[in-house]
Amino acid sequence: MINITLRCRGLALVVFLLGSDFVLGWLNNIKSGSTQQSQRSITSSSDQSCFCHLTGVLDDCFCDIESIDVFNNFKIYPKIQKLIERDFFRYYKVNLKRPCPFWPDDGHCSIKDCQVEPCPESKVPMGIKAGNYNKYSQDTNTVKQTEDCVQANQLGAINSTLSNQSKEAFVDWARHDDAKDHFCELDDETSPDAEYVDLLFNPERYTGYKGPSAWRVWNSIYEENCFKPRSVYRPLNPLAPSRGDDDGEGFYNWLEGLCLEKRVFYRLISGLHTSINIHLCAKYLIQESWGKTTWGTNMKEFRHRFDPVETKGEGTRRLKNLYFLYLIELRALSKVAPYFERTIVDLYTGNAEEDAATKELLLQVLNETKAFPMHFDEKSMFAGGKTEAKILMEEFRLHFKNISRIMDCVGCSKCRLWGKLQTQGLGTALKILFSEKQIKNLSENSPSKGFQLTRQEIVALLNAFGRLSTSIMELQNFRTLLQDNR
Q: Greatest CA separation found in the chain?
């Protein structure tokens, strides 16, 4: 009965989001497709095995997968893709030369597709290079735009002429840098090794990076940071060393016995791992020859990572964890909307027209997230005794912060770039979810007190959510390809 009710809620949400005429046509197509499918060979059912159990309600929340698919693919995905192509979101400053803090560096990947092309300083918009506080100060909008490096340096020195309000904002930024609410260890943007990267010119895709170096990273994340004793086996991946007939059910029995917070932690990491794997399967190196490189969908690799038969049922769990992670970051975006709705917040690049259009598009995305009616309820977390909840929250934060540091151990520069960005994006989402009171108390026309986001965090937050949105869209593409391949 509960399942039927939730399915009805999901269908009602689809109608609400897309309109009755669209949905009726959509359902007719599904019905027609189902009739044709029943007449096809039995082998087609194995082709769809990756998705046959990917349906219904997610664990630890009351949202169904079908509603997320419709909401993301028709409402969010088109807007988020346009947003992250804007100048403010495409340039990300990152230090890819930080040494691994946990084990001796085993060298960087020598494969050419692992390399990251830094963005020349001359191509980075002047406002982005001018300093964090400029992104949120209306004073900077009156500064005459400059084009050469000398004038850019002068723009960066406008602190002496700022209003008292903006000086206060700058001091608050300094306080924020030392705050203990971070879930990630942020790169020092003033480091000589920190460089701007154009994310559009360095897309996330399969690079060929694999083997012991890659597995050491993921093993360290799962074995040492997901609250799991080593005696409990967790099936990492079909490529991982086999454990005989152990199908991992012992791990899931153990996981279900944990408190909600620790279950959530594992599912977030698993969802992130799943999303990254989907990106690699969707943008796989298909062919490489002189002067021509072809990237495309690798169906065999997708089955290898997610087919229930090949993964002993693990694949479906991984995909569901992707949807769970999507809900967490979606909830964070809806909660942080008041922060960006204030007139004092400018997504500043130095181009007033560009900045206004970018903020308008961002607010459109945030309004869509607020309209979603089946959000994850973060208030169910850390809801026990005050002392116990505080200890658990700090443990949760430190474990995640440790994972952000492990990203500096990734040997492939491009994998490191996207691993750091997506980890930081999720860390920023967690920071938002547990800063509700501070966000509610924000003043409309004065600097934030108790809650701030750096430009680095904002770029990571939206790009990380863009990656999740892309993963769910790619799943629809894989469904279509599986049907076409019958």
A: 76
The per-residue pLDDT string of the chain (486 residues; one tens digit each, 9 = 90 and over) reads 444 444 445 545 555 555 545 444 544 444 444 434 433 433 444 456 788 778 877 877 778 899 999 999 999 999 999 999 999 999 999 999 999 999 887 666 667 788 899 888 889 998 898 764 434 444 444 443 333 333 333 333 333 334 444 445 444 444 444 455 688 888 888 888 999 999 999 999 988 888 888 888 998 999 889 998 878 877 655 445 555 555 667 888 888 898 999 999 999 999 999 999 999 999 998 877 676 778 899 999 999 999 888 888 889 999 999 999 999 999 999 999 999 999 888 899 999 999 999 999 999 999 999 999 888 888 888 877 888 888 988 999 999 999 999 999 999 999 999 999 999 999 999 999 989 888 988 887 766 677 889 999 999 999 999 999 999 999 999 989 888 776
- In Å, how far from its chain's centre is CA 262? 19
Hey, what are 308's tokens? 């229930």
Q: pTM to 2 decimals?
A: 0.82
* Euclidean distance between CA atoms 201 and 93, whole angstroms: 14
Q: Encoding tokens for residue 289?
A: 């020859």
- Contact call for residues 88 and 160 (beta carbons, < 8 A): no
What is the CA angle 164-168-171, rounded to 5?
140
Choose among 263, 259, 397, 382: nearest CA to 320.
Answer: 263
Question: Which residues pair with residue 64 across a beta bridge?
Answer: 57
Task: Work out the angle at residue 158's Cα, subtended by the Cα atoms of residues 155 and 163, and round it to the nearest 5 degrees.
Answer: 140
